[in-house]
Amino acid sequence: MNAKNVSAGIKVLVVEDDNDWMEKITKYLQEEGFLVFQATDYASAKKTIQSRKKQYFDLGVIILDLQLPDGNGMDLLNLILPLWNREKTKVVIATSTGWVSEDETVKKYPYYSDFITKNISDFKGDLIKAVYRAIQEREDARHEFGISG
């Protein structure tokens, strides 16, 4: 199956406070055909995630930075969990080297789909692979639970 066919119409929320990283991540995802929404801080991400309850805003994947100027991504994960339909929305954590380890995150928040480090040479490749893995998990869960749309 063509990757563009898989990504067509899937909405991705990118939560990232660094303008350069936001630009890169958005570009990479748009090149793959995803519909990208942006939040540059905890407050705007919270508002966007809460508005996703409306049918027109069904998020497929959330790309989540853990260091935000007005809160942190781990707190945002706590906010997401009660609202989150794990069969419909997957979370990919993207963070800088050294801020938090994947092992630490797995122990506290086992519900995310993937964990990637931004400061690596093939970030684009890792990002795209992580998003497609999240989409596959989403589709597998939707099939398992008989969810359509």
Explain this structure.
By secondary structure, the chain is α/β, with parallel strands linked by helices. Helix content is 46%, strand content 20%. The protein contains 6 helices and 7 strands; from the N terminus they run αβαβαβββαβαβα. It has helices at 3-7, 19-31, 42-51, 73-83, 102-108, 123-144; strands at residues 11-15, 35-39, 59-64, 67-68, 71-72, 90-95, 114-117. The strands form 2 sheets. A 5-stranded parallel β-sheet has the order 2-1-3-6-7. A two-stranded antiparallel ribbon has the order 4-5. Helix 3 (42-51) runs parallel beside helix 4. The longest helix has 22 residues, at 123-144. It is globular, with a radius of gyration of 14 Å. The two termini are 19 Å apart.
List keywords for this structure.
6 helices, two-stranded antiparallel ribbon, five-stranded parallel β-sheet, alpha/beta, 149 residues
Mean pLDDT, to the nearest integer, reads 77
Main sheet summary? 5 strands, parallel
Give me the oligomer status. single chain
Unreliable stretches: none
Give a brief outline of the structure.
With 149 residues, the protein is of the alpha/beta class. The chain has helices spanning 3-7, 19-31, 42-51, 73-83, 102-108, 123-144, and strands at 11-15, 35-39, 59-64, 67-68, 71-72, 90-95, 114-117. It is globular, with a radius of gyration of 14 Å.
Question: Secondary-structure blueprint of this entry?
Answer:
Blueprint: H1 3-7, E1 11-15, H2 19-31, E2 35-39, H3 42-51, E3 59-64, E4 67-68, E5 71-72, H4 73-83, E6 90-95, H5 102-108, E7 114-117, H6 123-144
Parallel strand pairs: 1-2, 1-3, 3-6, 6-7
Antiparallel strand pairs: 4-5
